[in-house]
Amino acid sequence: MGNSSFWDDLNSSCSNAGNSCYLENSMRFNFTLQEQAADFYIVLPVIYSVICAVGLTGNTAVIYVVLKAPKMKTVTNMFILNLAIADDLFTLVLPMNIAEHLLRYWPFGEILCKVILSIDHYNIFSSIYFLTVMSIDRYLVVLATVRSKRMPHRTYRAARIVSLCIWMLVTIIVLPFIIFANVYTDDLEIKSCGLNFPKPERFWFKASRIYTLILGFAIPVSTICILYTMMLYKLRNMHLNSNARALDKAKKKVTIMVFIVLAVFLFCWTPFHLATIVALTTDLPQTSMVIGISYFITSLSYANSCLNPFLYAFLDDSFRKSFRKLLECRTS
């Protein structure tokens, strides 16, 4: 696992796989190519700082409200809580990514390198898996409503157990990235934090991208699409059946909120995964436009971590009321 040979081979991969060097993980970029895009180099820390400040404030507020407000302890809010925790962890370590961009080397050592890369990948996988669980929950709620049945096992405690299982599953999925995360020194003696694969490095690099694409996007998104297709079918039949009971207002609002949160997630992350496919299957020239697009795609995926709190505040009346009530209690 020589560092120089790894980067020699990775740079060769970048010439053959286009902007894959920017998507090697969702935080690391090739510094040689950064020199070709000085404007992006200056703008990126500003963008990341805004995402960090807004995301950290918003997600911390979500965590505080869900944990403190008694009326917020619902099954859906348990999954929202875990989404906010994943986003909060990511935005919490984003300043180190900003520092790496500004300093143009990794100054924090190997342990923090593993921590940062693991949190980065936790964010990729945990968000989509919790959204998948939320979609499954919405489907079961709709199904139970159509059949006019109760759901005695759908409890806050059960949601906590499911959430714990999701974190354990994501830990297993992320484990290979934690193992390969390492601080390496390139030919210019510049320290960087990234995935240091064994030989043949190019094969492992592509395998890691396919692994992320399948487990972090293709399987969960396909599952979600199937669930929502079935859900819409059930709702359509329920509308046509005069004996069926319509979803009550509260359940419909929650279903719409989950759908919008999912749609925003796909809007932010689909370009990232599509770019991975393009990078691994085509030979893109390393032009300023390609570099700029890859930076924009990565920034868009980061931005998802600060958007969800605004969606909850805009779509969920109980969240707004609980937040205002807690603020009044704190100031009184």
UniProtKB/TrEMBL annotation:
Keywords, in A-Z order: Cell membrane, Disulfide bond, G-protein coupled receptor, Glycoprotein, Membrane, Receptor, Transducer, Transmembrane, Transmembrane helix
Subcellular location: Cell membrane
Topology within the bilayer: Multi-pass membrane protein
Keyword Acetylation: no
Recorded GO CC terms: neuron projection; plasma membrane
Primary location class: membrane
Pfam families registered for this protein in UniProt: 7tm_1
Residues covered by the G-protein coupled receptors family 1 profile domain: 58-312
SMART domains, per database record: 7TM_GPCR_Srsx
Annotated TM spans: 40-67, 79-98, 124-146, 158-181, 210-233, 254-272, 292-315
GO MF terms held by the record: neuropeptide binding; neuropeptide receptor activity
Family note: Belongs to the G-protein coupled receptor 1 family.
Protein name: NPBW2 protein
Originating species: Corvus moneduloides
Top-level taxonomy: Eukaryota, Metazoa, Chordata, Craniata, Vertebrata
Gene: Npbwr2
